[in-house]
TrEMBL record:
<feature type="active site" description="Proton donor">
    <location>
        <position position="176"/>
    </location>
</feature>
<feature type="binding site">
    <location>
        <position position="9"/>
    </location>
    <ligand>
        <name>substrate</name>
    </ligand>
</feature>
<feature type="binding site">
    <location>
        <begin position="176"/>
        <end position="178"/>
    </location>
    <ligand>
        <name>substrate</name>
    </ligand>
</feature>
<feature type="binding site">
    <location>
        <position position="67"/>
    </location>
    <ligand>
        <name>a divalent metal cation</name>
    </ligand>
</feature>
<keyword id="KW-0170">Cobalt</keyword>
<keyword id="KW-0479">Metal-binding</keyword>
<feature type="active site" description="Proton acceptor">
    <location>
        <position position="36"/>
    </location>
</feature>
<dbReference type="InterPro" id="IPR000056">
    <property type="entry name" value="Ribul_P_3_epim-like"/>
</dbReference>
<comment type="similarity">
    <text>Belongs to the ribulose-phosphate 3-epimerase family.</text>
</comment>
<dbReference type="GO" id="GO:0004750">
    <property type="term" value="F:D-ribulose-phosphate 3-epimerase activity"/>
</dbReference>
<dbReference type="GO" id="GO:0046872">
    <property type="term" value="F:metal ion binding"/>
</dbReference>
<feature type="binding site">
    <location>
        <begin position="143"/>
        <end position="146"/>
    </location>
    <ligand>
        <name>substrate</name>
    </ligand>
</feature>
<comment type="function">
    <text>Catalyzes the reversible epimerization of D-ribulose 5-phosphate to D-xylulose 5-phosphate.</text>
</comment>
<dbReference type="GO" id="GO:0019323">
    <property type="term" value="P:pentose catabolic process"/>
</dbReference>
<comment type="pathway">
    <text>Carbohydrate degradation.</text>
</comment>
<feature type="binding site">
    <location>
        <position position="34"/>
    </location>
    <ligand>
        <name>a divalent metal cation</name>
    </ligand>
</feature>
<dbReference type="InterPro" id="IPR011060">
    <property type="entry name" value="RibuloseP-bd_barrel"/>
</dbReference>
Length: 221
């Protein structure tokens, strides 16, 4: 039985009360804080950077999982590591040298991972499995919260699950985009073990109610 992790995306949190929001969602049972970084270049939206990561770091002890939707990636990696990130992922097509970017993340003491958009091929995994701690499958096109889950992502999750199992390595398989109480079990059955959810959690007043319901859905998955 895999251990499942729920990772609320603070993209849908109230930014005016971010410290309180991350404390509340961890108290409600979140395992990880998912931190979406958008640059208005790689994706058509602009969000938050290392200063905000540093600001929330003292409020929570759970890992902060930084999803870089930026291009180029390398020059911002050390800043996020210094700001308290524990996991840093990036999109392979946004990196000039994927192996070097993964190594840079690891050299700064963080877990490293690649992110795959719905149309990004999995061949980017060739030759780097030994440097991966996490693989993130996007089930929406990146850039915005509140979009609908793209069902084709399930096949991709299943394909990555096979690759991870064949590798014999302990690599987290995260899914992100449109995850809700209603579809989290399906994503788990496909092979995901870590679930990013933004609007489904922060869009409701009772964070614990949503997270508990997600865990109930995962129990028989
Ligand atoms: O990275 C992204 C979007 O680019 C995600 O992390 C979203 O923030 C998830 O939001 P919901 O789809 O769960 O509302």
């Amino acid at each position: 039985m895999p251990s499942y992790r729920i990772a609320p995306s603070i993209l849908s949190a109230d930014f005016a009360r971010l410290g309180e929001e991350v404390r509340n969602v961890v108290a409600a049972g979140a395992d990880i804080i998912h931190f979406d970084v958008m640059d208005n270049h790689y994706v058509p939206n602009l969000t938050i950077g290392p200063l905000v990561c540093q600001a929330i770091r003292p409020h929570v002890e759970v890992p902060i999982d930084v999803h870089l939707m930026v291009k180029p990636v390398d020059r911002i990696i050390p800043d996020f590591a210094k700001a308290g990130a524990n996991i840093i992922t990036f999109h392979p097509e946004a990196s000039e040298h994927i192996d070097r970017s993964l190594q840079l993340i690891r050299d700064h003491g963080c877990k490293a991972g690649l992110v795959f958009n719905p149309a990004t091929p999995l061949h980017y995994l060739d030759h780097v499995m030994d440097k991966l701690d996490i693989i993130l499958i996007m089930s929406v096109n990146p850039g915005f919260g509140g979009q609908s889950f793209i069902p084709q992502a399930l096949q991709k999750i299943a394909a990555v699950r096979r690759l991870i199992d064949d590798s014999g390595r302990d690599i987290m398989l995260e899914v992100d985009g449109g995850i809700k109480i209603e579809n989290i079990a399906e994503a788990a059955r496909a092979g995901a073990d870590t679930f990013v959810a933004g609007s489904a959690i922060f869009g409701k007043p009772d964070y614990k109610g949503v997270i508990d319901a997600m865990r109930r859905e995962l129990a028989p998955a």
